[in-house]
Structures are given as C-alpha cells and as structure tokens.
Design a protein that fits this description.
13 helices; two-stranded antiparallel sheet; metal-binding; 2% strand; 2 domains; mainly alpha; isoprene biosynthesis
C-alpha cells in the first residue's frame, strides 16, 4: 500500500463523514449508528461547520497528493454529493412516469452513494500507476458495490429496526423519499403514485405505502437488483490475477449484500 493510497483512504472517509453530518441536518435526524446525531447533540450550526471543516481538510490533503487526475476525481465526488441531495429534494414523478422516476432514483443513488466508492477506487488504482483499463475496472467495481449497498439499505429500511439499523425503520418514508421497494411496488398499486407525489405527508400515507410494499414484490425485486449489481462488481475485477487483494474485494461484495445493518 503506497502512502498516497493510504492518504486517499483518509480523504475518502473525511468526505464521507462530512456528507453524513450534512445529511443529518437536512433530514432532521436524531440518531446515527445507534447514538445521538451530531446535530441533535451539538446543534445544526456545529454539525454544518463540522462537515464544512472536514471537506476543507479533505481538500487540503487532496491538493498535497499533487496528482491532477486524482484531485479531479475526488472533487467530482463532492460535486455529485450536492447534485444527489438536490435531486432527492425533487418529486420523483415531476417529469414522467415510473420508468423516469426509477431512472432518476438510480442516478441520484449513484451521485449520493456510488460515486464516492467508484471514483475513490479509480483514484487508488491511478495512484498505483495502473493502466486505464485497470482504473476503469476499479471504477466499475466501486460503482456497482455502491449501488448494491444503497439498494440493500433501502430493503433494510423496511425490514430492520432501530436496534439493528442504529436509526428508525421506515425513515425514508418519513423523509418523503420513494426508494426502490416503493417504486417496484407502484405498478401493482397505482395509488402509490399519489403518495409519492405528496411525499407521504397525508395521515395514513406511510402505513398505506408500507402495506403496499409488503403486499408486493417490491422488497424481493430490490434485493434481486442489489444482487445484479453485486455480480457486476465481481465481474469488473474477475479479469485481474488471483490474489489475496482480489479475494478481499470479493469479500466486501458478499458483506454488502448479506448485511443486516
């Protein structure tokens, strides 16, 4: 492991943590990983400033790598985090039907979750001096791991609990967000579209959406899509020479799709 790659990992984690601090402020979250969120314990101002500080430190450390391509890759991640948050604030059905809404959901998921993993993996390969084909494979691995991770997260929002998740179950619905299980359930229950459009704000909307998901194949289809992306992640690195490192990457994929929290 090169020192520059270790520093890149630190930068990636700083960006990730900053995004969590900002997300909790936007989402009015009370808990994070089973404990009080920073915004609840210390207030919104300190939470926002803490996130800003981490992004600033990440930018300084990134500049010290003196690698223009890596700087561009990680700067793109920060841009994507903001784009994804803005997309999440929009109504899913504003510009089209279910297909359009699902495409928007997947694009938002890439921006908010998968871009960080994809571009960080590509940057790590670039710092090691690998050729473009290997760097692109690393990008695809990170992208599909990230998408699989978020899809599993969406399933756990319906199947988990405060104790297992470290945050309240059905949190996405309470935030007015239509995730994959809800979108997959919509064709069998057209009324879900109305619930999505009003962001589950009317009395009984959350219960009705939860019931519609449980009576449909929404959760099963979401898990199936997560497994498809997990397989694409494995395929991306399948051409690399067998090694402990490649096995470790495969192990991460398994942990992502089998996790319960």
């Amino acid at each position: 492991l090169e020192p520059s790659q270790r520093r890149l990992a630190e930068i990636t984690e700083m960006i990730h943590t900053a995004s969590l601090l900002h997300d909790d402020v936007i989402d009015l979250a009370d808990t994070r990983r089973g404990v009080g969120s920073v915004n609840r314990v210390f207030g919104n101002k300190l939470a926002v400033l803490g996130g800003d500080f981490l992004l600033a430190r990440a930018s300084v450390c990134l500049a010290r790598l003196r690698d223009v391509e890596v700087i561009e890759l990680l700067s793109t991640v920060i841009e994507h985090l903001v784009k994804g948050e803005v997309m999440q604030m929009k109504t899913a059905f504003r510009d089209g039907g279910l297909d359009s809404a699902f495409a928007m959901y997947m694009r938002k998921t890439y921006y908010k979750t998968a871009s960080l993993m994809a571009n960080s993996c590509k940057a790590a390969a670039s710092l090691a001096g690998h050729p473009p084909a290997v760097c692109e494979a690393a990008f695809l691995y990170g992208k599909h791991v990230g998408l699989a991770f978020q899809l599993v997260d969406d399933v756990l929002d319906f199947e988990g609990s405060l104790e297992s998740l470290g945050k309240p179950a059905l949190n996405d619905l309470r935030q007015g967000l239509a995730t994959a299980p809800v979108l997959f359930a919509a064709p069998s229950n057209p009324n879900i579209v109305k619930l999505i459009q009003r962001k589950f704000e009317a009395p009984g909307d959350i219960d009705e959406a939860c019931r519609a998901v449980s009576e449909s194949a929404g959760v099963a289809k979401t898990r199936s899509l997560a497994l498809e992306h997990a397989q694409l992640a494995l395929d991306a690195v399948a051409g690399w020479a067998p090694s402990a490192e490649r096995d470790a990457l495969a192990g991460i994929v398994t942990r992502v799709v089998e996790r319960k929290f």
